[in-house]
Specification:
2 copies of one chain form a homodimer. Chain A contains 18 helices and 20 strands. By secondary structure, chain A is of the alpha/beta class. The first copy, chain A, has 2 domains: 278 residues, Nitrilase/N-carbamoyl-D-aminoacid amidohydrolase; 199 residues, Rossmann fold, CATH 3.40.50. In chain A, the strands form 4 sheets. A 7-stranded mixed β-sheet of chain A has the order 5-4-3-2-1-14-15, covered by helices on one side. In chain A, strands 6-7-8-9-12-13 form a 6-stranded mixed β-sheet, with helices on one face.
């Protein structure tokens, strides 16, 4: 029996577009004698639809679109489509109004509906907000020969349903274990329809986990993932299959739409090896692809084709310009060079070298005279005060205003270029360099920004050499460098990793060999910068804990401040 | 038996401060021969602690603080303290790591722990993210005479636990009904320890609901609520008690800390009438108090004492200035008047009249020359294009920059002054008038802004009369008024109410008599403005559906756009 994976890139809420894509994949599948087509979790509305799910008319539209899709799919092809179902008993039983479901479409009908059983409510996931967990094992039967003899029993799981193998994790995250239930029922194989967001190294984790489960339960698993960027989340695809020995027998492409076919041999009851695309060679390569996809999809799905960004000659804006150029093409990227009195000569030169290397457009807009006009207006009020944060930020906000003026005038999406280390400690200006529709590298720590640029330069300079070797500086006052205010980035980033990702206490970090005063300083900076992060643009999530949807901190709080 | 309610205003995460407050209330209670002291939900860490709960060292600190508090409380007083408990079986059973709990402290011990059973996961609530629901009925026994004879049985519920009376709501929201279980056990009365956020009319709803439950189950209920502003959420207090006939027998003050005592008569098995503070006379009075508290607490809990805001002479900034003056005192409010070429003469006059009425400080900072410097710099690039959104927004962002310069220089918190109607349709400038640490009236629709100002002027003009009668205008181009771009506010606000609060479809709204084209225009504006709202400051929530924590919409989505 041939099974195909439609690794789709949906647009959230654009039901017609998404249904059309499923239809096209179904035609492709039918032409190759595929019996069963898999599409990702919530493939009809895209994942995550978030509060669109609170609109009854949205739910109704999904339902109508599903029926319409069932009508036009080719005969003799069963298709699993991700959809939202109303929980008819919600108000009587006191349950949530919806299910996160998979519909089995065949012969112009919605033949069966399966409900997701394990609903994630950590990090960026809010599924408990909308959905009631399914309580039954999900499977269906299908014959390869179309006459219903010797039907195969196929288990259906939805994303999180397979993320509870307590042998693999060493602990249980949910009470139920859907794959165990399906094995008890005696299914021939299990499909998993996912919308699993990317973070560095996630695919290795997924494969290790499902290899473990397939070996443990002696059962083949076909894993179909969504691809594409949806706001802060990047879905990397990399759908794959493991046979009952736990070997990878198929791997779809990463970071792009794909259509792959695999065959289940009914004699050996196992999956046959098929095309196995390689994983990225390095984490940098993987991260680069993720950021390019995230930027591209956010831009296009928001209806833009061009972007604008400020080029300071520093490494962050240089990297973002390179990502944008790869994502959208050099003709669609505009850089603004906005030097001030405090900009060093090399800043302009480095930015100009970058512009040349990338072949993008740029304008030079010195901000000196605008600065003077602000200074003049505020002169009498600021009289007697020293040059400080107010004056520094004013420059950044003048640049932010100019960037937005270009965005508003010519319809370019503004990209902000701050990295995760800056965002963590608040070394950035709200309404200034934080301005933008998308924060491209706000989940990439500074040390990783350097690593990415070095990787990018592996076959010759894309990022000008001087950008990589000069000390980072905001250039908002004379001879300023980042390390005037912050610990060295190697130290800062490791402390941040321990604080943010590992929830370590000051004591634990100190015991790992870091200076207590430095740790406390960093912690206070992180807490105090919460108000800035609250107003930051969506940032592409590439780690297991990004600022953004999955980071929910109070602002007016005092823990560890006093 | 005397029972006291400590209606406390905690600072999120400031465990020492919060424990101290509980201690002080306990001393007060002991001095009045109170036997049982009630404090709000999570009174030790403040509600909502959000992702602070993900830090193991935070949880440990809470636990240590609870033990310390138990040690110092007066003898012969039982105290119910809101706290967080570790779920010891989480990893074995596949459950969440924590419980939202109430600890019964008595005789230097933590005598009993009760877990919240119904965990809200709608609107602003994320309790499923952190907590496992309790599965047992929560009650304890207590004797009034200290020798354990004739003990009373007291049922303990935590906030949402009492919000599932299916008779009152006409439907069930949760499977369990904790009060029913407690009645079956035969408790003498029920306490409810809450942190229930304010919205207009919420107290009436709470009282109606608990009156219904007390009558239905023939049981007295004592309801203790948190007060104070925590980021976007305002807790109004208004703790109250209903006797077994469903009559209000006690009501604490609204919008301020309070300590009230009530007596349970052991013969009649009922609560004795006590002080009953009046509810606000009008919704405007209530809303005013809420906004004043929200502004005051956000400012103070963030460590500020002074605020700055832009005064355009319009009604929104006038109202916010009045709220700030009430909250912080006239000496702590600074207004900036920043007229441009397009500002009408009356704008300055109206703003100056407001400054005079309120007695606050102000500066006049005309932005014409700064505008000229931007125009000059961009002249060659913008050559041939028409005056448009870019030029309009630039003015707003110049003002935003000046406001932040004042904030950074003098340590004033910047308040943004946009109303909910503007925020809904995006009639506001990101990085311009949206700038601020707090959006004071971003959940107040324009029509309600007018109503509030009229109420405020009931005993003479606070808001200058001309501000109330002139047509609203952004004054970013010659002779501009809001109604050039938007439907009349009476119509706009009703369409928005139906879209945002009632999740009505275009068809439904149209059937209610609104023009189809207008509805579609409004809907598109709302969807397109999502990117602005994503970067807005926290806004004080005063309705059942505010933009902010409880509004989780995708940006790069296409539902109803194409």
């Amino acid at each position: 029996m041939k099974i195909a994976i439609a690794q789709l890139n949906p647009i959230i809420g654009n039901l017609t577009n998404n249904a059309q894509k499923i239809y096209e994949m179904a035609i492709l599948a039918a032409n190759q004698n595929v019996r069963l087509l898999l599409t990702p979790e919530l493939s009809l509305c895209g994942y995550p639809p978030r509060d669109l799910l609170l609109n009854p008319s949205f739910i109704q539209s999904v339902s109508i679109e599903l029926e319409k899709l069932a009508q036009i799919l080719p005969p003799n092809l069963a298709v699993l489509v991700g959809t939202v179902e109303i929980n008819q008993n919600a108000k009587i039983k006191g349950e949530k109004l919806l299910y996160n479901s998979i519909a089995l479409l065949e012969n112009k009908q919605v033949k069966q509906i399966f409900h997701k059983r394990l609903l994630p409510t950590y990090d960026v996931f809010d599924e408990g907000r909308y959905f009631e967990p399914g309580r039954q094992s999900n499977y269906f039967t299908l014959s390869s020969n179309f006459n219903d003899s010797n039907p195969l029993k196929i288990g259906v799981t939805i994303c999180e349903d397979l993320w509870n193998d307590e042998e693999f994790w060493g602990e249980k995250y949910y009470e139920d274990n859907p794959i165990q239930d399906l094995v008890n029922i005696g299914v021939d194989w299990v499909v998993n329809l996912s919308a699993s967001p990317y973070c560095v190294g996630k695919q290795k984790l997924r494969e290790a986990m499902l290899k473990h489960s397939s070996q443990r339960y002696q059962i083949p698993i076909i894993y179909a993932n969504q691809i594409g960027g949806n706001d802060d989340l990047i879905f990397d695809g990399s759908s794959f299959a493991v046979n009952r020995q736990g070997e990878i027998v198929l791997r779809s492409k990463a970071f792009q739409e794909d259509f792959t076919v695999i065959e289940f041999d009914e004699i050996s009851k196992n999956l046959q090896p098929k095309i196995i695309n390689l994983l990225s060679e390095t984490e940098e390569e993987e991260l680069w692809s993720a950021l390019v996809l995230g930027l591209k999809d956010y831009t296009k799905k928001c209806g833009f084709s061009k972007v604008v960004l400020g080029l300071s000659g520093g490494i962050d804006s240089s990297l973002v310009a390179a990502i944008a150029t790869e994502a959208l093409g050099k003709d669609n990227v505009l850089g603004l060079l906005m030097p001030s009195l405090f900009s060093s000569e090399h800043s302009i030169k480095d930015a100009e070298a970058l512009v040349k290397n990338l072949g993008i457009k740029s304008y030079l807009l010195p901000i000196g005279e605008i600065m003077n006009s602000y200074d003049k207006l505020l002169e009498s009020i600021f009289l007697g005060s020293e040059f400080g944060v107010a004056e520094e930020n004013m420059q950044s906000r003048i640049r932010g205003n100019l960037l937005m003026a270009m965005s508003n005038k010519f319809g370019h999406l503004l990209l902000s270029t701050g990295n995760k280390s800056e965002m963590a400690v608040g070394y950035c200006t709200l309404y200034g360099d934080m301005n933008g529709g998308l924060a491209v590298i706000s989940d990439v720590p500074k040390t990783r920004v350097f690593a990415l640029c070095k990787w990018l330069n592996r076959q010759g300079d894309v990022i000008p050499h001087n950008v990589l070797i000069k000390p980072p500086s905001a250039e908002l006052r004379p001879n300023q460098v980042d390390q005037d205010s912050l610990p060295p980035y190697e130290i800062l980033d490791e402390i941040l990793e321990r604080l943010i990702h590992h929830h370590q206490s000051v004591t634990e970090i100190s015991q790992a060999g870091f200076d207590l005063e430095t740790i406390n300083k960093v912690l206070k900076l992180v807490i105090r910068a919460e108000f800035k992060r609250k107003q930051a643009p969506p940032g592409l999530k590439v780690t297991d804990r990004a600022f953004g949807t999955g980071w929910r901190m109070p602002i007016a709080s005092r823990w560890k401040i006093d």
